[in-house]
Amino acid sequence: MPLWSRLRNVFRTRGGDMNTELDEELQAHIAMRADQFVEEGLPPDEARRRAEQMFGNTLLVRERTRDADVAQWLDALLQDLRYALRMMRHSPVLTGVVVLSLGLGIGANTAFFTLTNALLLKQLPVRDPARLVSLELGRPGEANWGDSFTNPLWEEFDKGQDIASGAFAYAAQSFNAGERGETRMINAAIASGRVFETLGVEPVAGRLFTAADDRRGGGWDGPVAVLGYDYWQRAYGMDPSIVGRNISLDGKPYKVVGIAPASFYGIYVGLRFDVIVPLATETYRTSDPKLLDARSNWMVSIVARLKPEWTQARANERLKALAPGLFEATVPPNWPPKRVQDFLSSRLRVTAAARGLSAVSDSMRSAVLLLNGFVALVLLIACANVANLLLARATVRAREYTVRMALGASRSRLLRQSLTESLLLALAGAAVGLAIAQPAAQALVAISGRSTAQMSLDLAPDGRVLLFTTVVGVFCGLLFGMAPAWRASRNALLPRIAGTAGDGKGRLRACLVSLQVALSVVVLVGCGLFLSSWQKLGKASLGFDPNHVVLAKVDLSTLTMEQDQRAEAVEDVRRQLRGAPGVEETSASVLTPMGSGMWSSLVVGDDGKGGRREHEIYYNAVSPGFFRALGTPLLAGRDIEPNDRKSSTQVAVVNESFVRQVFGGGNPIGRYFEEGLTPSKTGFVTHKVQVVGIARDATYRELRQAPPPTMYRPLSQARALPYVTFAVRGAGEMEQLLSTVRAAFASSGNRFSYTLQTYPMRMRDAMVTERLLAALSTLFGALALGLAGMGLYGVLAYSVTRRSGEIGIRMALGATASHIRNWVLRQSGLTVLSGFAAGLLLALWLAPVAKKLLFGVKASDWRVYAVSLAVLVAISFAASYLPARRATRLNPVQALRHD
């Protein structure tokens, strides 16, 4: 019957009317065929009989016709659902265990998918995000293109481009939300004037800034700011009167002109701004009128909205023509010829920005994707466990199935009924999983964040998350329900009635346990690898000692004084901190290891073989006592001293990597290198710097990266001092040291705004990805072991019960308790070993996927696999012992009588 006829029958009158119509149609066909037989010469009675014989049982024909009716199918489905609900009520413990197991498994998968969705799949909540593109700069043939630009490059692009209806520059920042004393850092953004116009964002209150506000020093309202909705709610209690009032950002007043909508967090996924200010007002905030003119200050990303008639391919072709002129106009003046040539040969391109730009590290994204695989394995283990439970229930219900088949129920009918029960359980588990997914995802974000910058994501479930949860629920229902359903529907009537169904079901359950063990091996190996990696990373040689150190970052940009005066003020505070009780040493520096900043400088050195080459070197400006405060050993020479002033000889302490790269090794104490590369009419001039000391290599930005070549210059000889960080080393508790630092700043009159952080907390932040992988893989490993242990226990307990007669015969024939116990344990061992062998091969095949996330440990480390085997053996023995002991305590007479 055509589909439209089936659908039409749904809305037709049920019961007698339809039956009457079917009977009338059947009788008409029989009459027509009887007439044909009469015409062929048969008597009317014989013709009628022959026609009815051809059509067969009219009742069966009518029922088959009704089977084509969708309403009939829906009726059967409702019957199956009602029966499934009744069976769930009759077995509340089994139902609860299954729903909770699946709920946890599906919930974990949904939580990670929610996180993945927010990180990688959701589009920006702005007007027509598909038209947004991000500008990138790179060289042809290179894989890594960058999305950071200087302000001069941005201004030239904005003036010369014709591919976009709107464009803006954007950068993430951190501002001090206060004027003096200890302040709190807030997430900030700086953006050019057309950011809101280009994105199509409307304010919740007040107005959003425009191009008229994006002027150095501010527009008609002076320097203005727009608050993020969450920050408005958190800091000001959603007080609408904040609009029009001034707030302090880095000690400077900004007028709040509006509130951004709750859905708009900026363009960096994972980083929600608290306040956003016009780009041009950066000269006002930093008191640096030349900041935005610097051609070497790579500070902004560029996003544009393509015109309707422009595709990305066409835009990239246009950028090929525009790029040379843009680069010619913005060449950094302090670059040597080779670097200038590389810059001028670069190209521009656009890439899709509908999903925003990511503020989450590549390692964190890789970790989230890998953990998605872990939770999927745990869910498969849970499904195998549920399948074992349902197989056990099918054994109990074997007589029920036999009776139903004897009464005429078809195999397909039993299969459908059993699958309906499984799907209902799975969907109930999916509902539980959906309920716990968002809190779980929020917890994941919380433990993935840093103490100084909490990751912020839009975790609200959308259609994609709901579809994922539903699909996973249905998949699980089919996965764990298929084996019990197939077993329940097998036409094995006589063996079931006789109670001798054979051991096929036992073998199937053992295979499911082996599958659980195999998947558990993969999870355990991953857990072991990530735990080892985390431990080795924590014990890695850093080149400095972060213990018992407090960091106080001070913003100097708000001080209206010359650089020499800033250096003197910093030294005054350093001496005051150094003299505080409980303080062993104090230093001040522009940068500290494992911080977020990086300064570099070009130097020219003599490699000792007559060769002179340019090198890009890490640059840091430090005070006396820097190496003692951070616990970095000086290997040769001397430290930076108080008499190393601007007017004295330019000096530097360099690290081991600097010596190898710039001087080619050896002892460079007393030797000079050239630093600065300042342009002049006759070429590039430099100033000579004398090496006075060699420090041990120290990790500066990434724990996994080799220490970079670094030079340490005196603060008094620094090229700029926008901020410094005091490192205070003490012998007491961290809280006591923090109080000491606060008291020292207070006694100095709180001339500065500062933020505090302990060095151990910074190191904890540096290992957030490794900590996340180690913690969650351990959790998943424990879940996998627990589920596998439960499955093994269930199979052995079932086997002991089912084979109690055989055990009774063995004992009657003289088998001792130890023989029976070993026999049961041998069954367990075979199941576990077969699963471990399969899991070992699978783990070795999958291990390279995690290679990039490991540190100091190989993906094939035999010790990890050996420990995994030992843990599995221990869990297997614990799960097998109780059934084995029960088997030894069977009474042979009772066992034989029961059989």
From TrEMBL:
<dbReference type="InterPro" id="IPR050250">
    <property type="entry name" value="Macrolide_Exporter_MacB"/>
</dbReference>
<feature type="transmembrane region" description="Helical">
    <location>
        <begin position="507"/>
        <end position="531"/>
    </location>
</feature>
<feature type="transmembrane region" description="Helical">
    <location>
        <begin position="465"/>
        <end position="486"/>
    </location>
</feature>
<dbReference type="InterPro" id="IPR047928">
    <property type="entry name" value="Perm_prefix_1"/>
</dbReference>
<feature type="transmembrane region" description="Helical">
    <location>
        <begin position="93"/>
        <end position="115"/>
    </location>
</feature>
<dbReference type="GO" id="GO:0022857">
    <property type="term" value="F:transmembrane transporter activity"/>
</dbReference>
<protein>
    <submittedName>
        <fullName>ABC transporter permease</fullName>
    </submittedName>
</protein>
<comment type="similarity">
    <text>Belongs to the ABC-4 integral membrane protein family.</text>
</comment>
<feature type="domain" description="ABC3 transporter permease C-terminal">
    <location>
        <begin position="373"/>
        <end position="490"/>
    </location>
</feature>
<dbReference type="InterPro" id="IPR025857">
    <property type="entry name" value="MacB_PCD"/>
</dbReference>
<feature type="domain" description="MacB-like periplasmic core">
    <location>
        <begin position="518"/>
        <end position="737"/>
    </location>
</feature>
<dbReference type="Pfam" id="PF12704">
    <property type="entry name" value="MacB_PCD"/>
</dbReference>
<dbReference type="Pfam" id="PF02687">
    <property type="entry name" value="FtsX"/>
</dbReference>
<dbReference type="InterPro" id="IPR003838">
    <property type="entry name" value="ABC3_permease_C"/>
</dbReference>
<feature type="transmembrane region" description="Helical">
    <location>
        <begin position="862"/>
        <end position="882"/>
    </location>
</feature>
<keyword id="KW-1133">Transmembrane helix</keyword>
<keyword id="KW-1003">Cell membrane</keyword>
<dbReference type="GO" id="GO:0005886">
    <property type="term" value="C:plasma membrane"/>
</dbReference>
<feature type="domain" description="MacB-like periplasmic core">
    <location>
        <begin position="95"/>
        <end position="321"/>
    </location>
</feature>
<feature type="transmembrane region" description="Helical">
    <location>
        <begin position="423"/>
        <end position="445"/>
    </location>
</feature>
<keyword id="KW-0472">Membrane</keyword>
<keyword id="KW-0812">Transmembrane</keyword>
<dbReference type="InterPro" id="IPR017800">
    <property type="entry name" value="ADOP"/>
</dbReference>
<feature type="transmembrane region" description="Helical">
    <location>
        <begin position="772"/>
        <end position="801"/>
    </location>
</feature>
<feature type="domain" description="ABC3 transporter permease C-terminal">
    <location>
        <begin position="779"/>
        <end position="892"/>
    </location>
</feature>
<feature type="transmembrane region" description="Helical">
    <location>
        <begin position="367"/>
        <end position="391"/>
    </location>
</feature>
<feature type="transmembrane region" description="Helical">
    <location>
        <begin position="830"/>
        <end position="850"/>
    </location>
</feature>
